[in-house]
Amino acid sequence: MTAPGPIGLEPAHKEGESTLIVAERFGVEIPTFQGEGPSCGHPALFIRLSRCNLTCTKCDSKESWDWSQFDPRKESTKQSVAELLDWASSSPVELVVITGGEPLIQQAKLLPLVRGLITAGKRVEFETNGTIAPVPELVADGVRFNVSPKLASFGVREDKSIVPAALETFVASERARFKFVASTMADLDRIAELADAHRLAPVWVMPEGTTPEVLIATTRVLADAVAARHWHFTTRLHVLAFADIRGR
Ligand SMILES: Nc1nc2[nH]cc(C(=O)O)c2c(=O)[nH]1
Ligand code: SF4
Ligand SMILES: [Mg+2]
């Protein structure tokens, strides 16, 4: 089916053209940074894809998948790979973060986008929950995976969120870093168990919090113990800088 265009004009994309279901894209018109993980503070563009295969109660991007609270007709659009490439190429910013929801649900259709971005001189980071193994073609030069396995304390069953075979593929890719959201010392103990069991490295810990106050408080609770384990620590810069508003 073609996307409906304004009456009397061509549809937004042509029949048969590869399209993705997108929740939002940002960073070109109003510039921002990668707020989390190894590239925290780097200028970045964001493509947030719709849909998730998990239903974490503490999710901070439910508008991308929770159709019991949000209307998919308002919260998602079909965008062609060509449109997304034009959009990203219009900015000099090198890093493109593909997030969600769970972006690897649409990984077959992502291949031409990622290839196009790399050809255009960009590098790509995926923010993924680690439950869907990337296809070999996606594990390419210029691509990194910020894999964020979700703990039970995040409001999800670990028999759904911890998928050993998928984690093994990420480890073998040598292009993954494992970024865990944590609130408590008990979370750090669980992260250690999972990292040991599945040989996950490098481990990054990110304090939970969608306000600066909660983020700072959680940072203080966790910092010593994260340092003692010789793990990496990241903040959520967009929460501190832009108050976690959409589109930043
Ligand atoms: N600035 C900024 N950095 C981010 N890094 C990961 C994000 C996400 O929502 O996955 C995100 C986000 O929403 N904003
Ligand atoms: S895996 Fe991520 S996007 Fe999906 S529900 Fe959990 S927190 Fe939200
Ligand atoms: Mg976010």
From TrEMBL:
Q: Where is the Radical SAM core domain?
A: 39-241
Q: Which residues are listed for substrate binding in this entry?
A: 33-35, 48, 99
**Keyword Thylakoid found:** no
Give the matching InterPro entries.
Answer: 7-CO-7-deazaguanine_synth-like, Aldolase_TIM, rSAM, rSAM_sf
The cofactors named for this UniProt entry are: Mg(2+); S-adenosyl-L-methionine; [4Fe-4S] cluster
Q: Answer whether the UniProt record assigns the keyword Cytoplasm to this protein.
A: no
For this protein, the Enzyme Commission number is 4.3.99.3
Q: Name one Pfam family in it.
A: Fer4_12
Residue sites binding [4Fe-4S] cluster per the record? 52, 56, 59
Keyword annotations of the record: 4Fe-4S, Iron, Iron-sulfur, Lyase, Magnesium, Metal-binding, Queuosine biosynthesis, S-adenosyl-L-methionine
> Which positions does UniProt annotate for S-adenosyl-L-methionine binding?
101, 148-150
Q: How does it assemble?
A: Homodimer.
The Swiss-Prot or TrEMBL record describes its family as follows: Belongs to the radical SAM superfamily. 7-carboxy-7-deazaguanine synthase family.
What this chain does, per the record? Catalyzes the complex heterocyclic radical-mediated conversion of 6-carboxy-5,6,7,8-tetrahydropterin (CPH4) to 7-carboxy-7-deazaguanine (CDG), a step common to the biosynthetic pathways of all 7-deazapurine-containing compounds.
| Descriptive protein name | 7-carboxy-7-deazaguanine synthase
**Which organism encodes this protein?**
Streptomyces poriferorum
- What gene, per UniProt, encodes this protein? queE
